[in-house]
Amino acid sequence: MPFDGGIGERVVMHKTLRSPRLAAGVFSLAVGLGALVSSPGEAHAGGFEVGENTTQAVARGGTGVVMKRDPSAMYFNPALLPRARGYQLLVNANLVNLDLDFQRDPLIYNRGNRTVQTDFEAVANQGGFFPAPFLTTSWDAGIENFALAAGVFGPSAYGSPCFGELTADGCQPNGGAARNMIVDSNMIVVYFSLGAGYQFNNVWGGELSVGLTLMAAHLRSSFISTFEADPNAVPPWEEDPQMDAVFRAEGLTGWAPTGILGLAYARDGFRLGASYRPPYHWEAKGKANIELPVSFQDLGAALSDDTLTFSTWHAGSLRLGWGYEGGVHPGKPERARLELEANLVWENWSLVENFHVAIAGHLELHEFVDEEGNPAIVGVADIYQAKNFQDTYSLRLGGGYAFLPWLSGHAGGFLETGAQPVAFTNVDFVSWERYGAGLGATLHLGSIDLDLAYMHIYSPSRRVSAGGVYNQIPLSECTGPNYDHAACNGGTPPGNPQNNGSWSSSAQIASIGMTWQY
Asked: Which of 9, 187, 489, 491 could form a disulfide with 221 if both were Cys (CB 3.0 to 4.6 A apart)?
């Protein structure tokens, strides 16, 4: 079909204006991470992650920077590795359940002299429990005050939510309150890790230890979202479900180097510890799969190159800890009977200002060709999906006591500030203010310790009335990243805020672990 002054010509004329919004619509609210949100990977409680790794840390309120004496020290504080004597193997799994409910406010607009109201069905996470495994091993090599460690582990996070309709074919968009957000995602982050620690004796009357863990982080992800594909969309934004396009990001993969540096000091039963992991940058590549509405299918629209590139930052973290250990364990004389610990954790999530998305190809409209038979083209520019995360701070308190030679108990709790501002509350990553409490027990069965723990995490409900999460309208003349075109309303994106309404969230972690010492 030649250009006829209709939609095909209009698309070509405005391709430079509409390109960023096209990319935004194609990617919608981006892939997310981690946490990163995630399966195997890393786990601090803020940002992309939920709760803490290892069963004892779950029971003890997320602490671990000064008291660890097993291979998991390579993650919490590698300076503690020399406390892991002999050969040890630690296997843990957190089962994380995320409860998230969102009731979107009705959409009310004027159509002529009539007032129209559109109501949305409430959505809740349908994903169930999500496993987050943790595997580490250590060996002292027969050298006093030294230990090596290796691990493959992942975050205590939630990596498989469903905010649509759960069917035999998986999670599908259903036009509910989470429309134009990520309704389904499957994400795995794995840290392949090597660590070592050494202890210096008789330093200021105590023991000073240093440690280092090197990690290669691997991300795999896929997700489903929707965006509005109406080429004639103008205010008022009516959000016509018949014009929704379904977008699937498939096979996103990426690698990033990182590490953890640790220090520890002990004297007369008192312990101090600190560990730091620098921030690192994600860049993942995958493929785009778009199901356009019928009107666009009739135009023969197709991507010339479906390669996606997604990038953002993952926060660094600083852990500081104080602890006390006293008495003699009735069944393990090399251990203390009582352990108490307090941790302060800072994570610089404010690095995550946006998700950067680049699509390699452009849209070709094969039903609109020029005199030489070339299809009409709509370019796809990079987009920056605003997140505006904030740094998080948490206070964690916990401890353990050996009641019997074969039984120890653990308890703890934490409070943490939120990474996600109220205006950007979203189903993709739930990181509000959090308050958690944990309980657990260890059965000492000879050379094997069997750990069990449970933690409940509560977040105060949120009410969003000035949301910053907008639905995507790729062909609108109002384009980003600055939204300064005359078609924009005071510098705001086109469409309506999607996250206005009532939100509630909580999480539960059931954890089981085993440590074998030889």
From this structure: 187
Residue 152 CA: distances (Å) to CA of 80, 255, 257? 18, 14, 14
Give residue limits of the domains in the chain: 7-517
**Amino acid code (one letter) for 368:** F
| 114-132 per-position pLDDT tens digit | 899 999 999 999 988 888 8
Q: Which residues pair with 375 in a beta bridge?
A: 369
> In which element (H, E) is residue 11 found?
helix 7-13
279 against 46, higher pLDDT: 279
The helix (H) or strand (E) run that includes residue 297 is: helix 294-297
DSSP 12: H
Ranges 30-44, 385-399, 449-463, most confident: 449-463
As a whole number of angstroms, the distance between CA 118 and CA 105 comes to 9
Tell me which residue has tokens 């910053």: 468
The residue count for the chain: 518
Q: Which two tokens stand for residue 29?
A: 């609210």
Respond yes or no on whether the N-terminal peptide bond of residue 19 is cis (omega within 30° of 0). Answer: no
Do the beta carbons of residue 424 and residue 468 sit within 8 Å?
Answer: yes
Q: Indicate the SS3 state at residue 197.
A: strand
**How many of the other CB atoms lie within 10 Å of CB of 117?**
8
- Tokens matching residue 434: 């959090």
Q: Which residues pair with 115 in a beta bridge?
A: 110
Phi and psi of 55, rounded to 5°?
A: -65, -45
Q: What is residue 281's three-state secondary structure? A: strand
Residue 463 and residue 217 in contact, taking contact as beta carbons nearer than 8 Å: no
- 320 residue type, one letter: L
**How confident is the model at residue 231, as a pLDDT?**
63
CATH of the domain spanning 7-517: 2.40.160.60
Tokens standing for residue 339: 């352990």
pTM of the complete model:
0.85
Would you say 307 and 361 are in contact if contact means Cβ atoms under 8 Å apart? Answer: yes
* pLDDT over 70 at 3, yes or no: no
Is 200:192 a contact under the CB 8 Å cutoff?
no
Q: Are 70 and 138 in contact (CB under 8 A)?
A: yes
